[in-house]
Amino acid sequence: MTSPTRRQLTLATLDRQHLLRRSAARWPELLRSLLAVQGQEPASPYLALWARGDHVDPGELDAAFDDGTLVKCSAMRLTLHVMHHDDHAALRGAMAPTLWAGAVNDKRYTSTGLTPADAEAFGDRLAGAASEPIGKAEIDAVLTSFVGNEPPPGLWRALRYVAPLRHAPDPSSPWRFARTPRFVAAPTSFAHDAGVDALVEGYLRALGPARRADIAQFTLLRQPVILAALDRLGERIVRLDGPDGELVDLAGATVPADDVVVPPRLLPMWDNVMLAYADRSRIIPDEYRPIVIRRNGDTLPAVLVDGRVIGVWRPVGERIEVSTFEQLPAVAWSGIEAEAESLRAFVGDRDPALYGRYARWWSELPTAETRRL
Domain limits of the chain? Predict the structure, then answer.
């Protein structure tokens, strides 16, 4: 493979994320090809798959959460992701030491005087209590019995990373998960090195070619851990010259030509393509990054035109309001309108206030055009 240009790196991301053309695969194969999707907002996994697939039925996703085929848990970057059950053990195995360090080095934990061994013991006790879904009251009761008195404020927020739990679905919620989560025990048998190999290989399949720094950004794995995985993967990995240094990719993977036509797309909050790289200009122009990724980390639902984030969207009444940061030609607006129509049909009457709790950011947007479609 010749050295890819910056434009080709953007196109490679869009191609592997099924954003150049929607995948005809059913949702399980589609999700596994993406490695995982962000799950911070309950609606986002549904919308991430809608943006990428021709055959994504929200009712099927509901059922997959209910029967455990889809798993929502803390993973890459210590944030919530949704993954296929068959990938859960590998991804949790890869991230286990990072999640562990995030918990036992948290000031909310170290200030209690508890040891790392205590955290492991607590995790075992909590998993034993979570054979059925449990919420805050049950968790507080386990914490109280464990520490012998009222648990210090914030202790659970530290320990949630290492507790062997997944989020329990709530059929009464429009996107299967309530804002006040409940938890249920998850498998605890994870192999770290094999998991890291699967994570690195899956990252490149879904988001490559990339620099090692990009893999580290997406996962929070340390560079020596990534290097060791690349060595173990051996001939499955190729190294390329990139615009900003060495890139790694899967052997046999392809990169589109510079002149591929890119359709408009509407992406959900915290979409992986906006968070997957140390240099986010692959997808988000530098001047728009602080608009779309807010100062507290909120990553707004974005509008892609020609492979670049050029605006944001939100539901307003029965329409999709699109605000762009630059003037767009009529052909771009035509494509955005088609996406908005598809999105409205997908969401239906599930959640009229979709992403409404983030409305405060819209008053600060430096928009060039706003249309309700």
Answer: 1-262, 284-372
Map residue 40 onto helix, strand or coil.
Answer: coil
Q: How many helices (H) and strands (E) does the chain have?
A: 14, 14
- Closest Cα to residue 261, out of 306, 218, 212? 306
Residues 6+ apart with CB under 8 A from 251: 235, 236, 237, 238
Q: Which residues partner with 53 through β-bridges?
A: 23
For 355-363, the CB contacts below 8 A with 24+ separation are 355/41, 355/43, 355/269, 355/301, 355/314, 355/315, 356/314, 356/315, 358/269, 358/298, 358/300, 358/314, 359/314, 361/294, 361/298, 361/300, 362/312, 362/314, 362/323
Peptide linkage before 366 cis (omega within 30 of 0): no
User: In terms of residues, how long is the chain?
Assistant: 373
pTM: 0.95
Nearest alpha carbon to residue 104 among 162, 153, 151, 152: 162
Distances (CA, A) of 254 to 1, 2, 198, 262: 8, 10, 20, 17
The residue ranking higher by pLDDT, 103 or 226, is 226
Q: Say if strands 23-26 and 53-55 run parallel, antiparallel, or are unpaired.
A: parallel
Torsion of CA 179, 85, 344, 355, to 10 degrees: 20
Distant-in-sequence, close-in-space partners of 278: CB < 8 Å, separation ≥ 6:
211, 213, 214, 216, 217
Q: Residue for token digits 């944001």?
A: 312
pLDDT for position 188: 65
For the stretch 4-27, pLDDT in tens is 999 999 999 999 999 999 999 999
pLDDT at residue 1, as a whole number: 62
pLDDT at site 121: 84
> pLDDT grade, residue 32 (50/70/90)?
very high
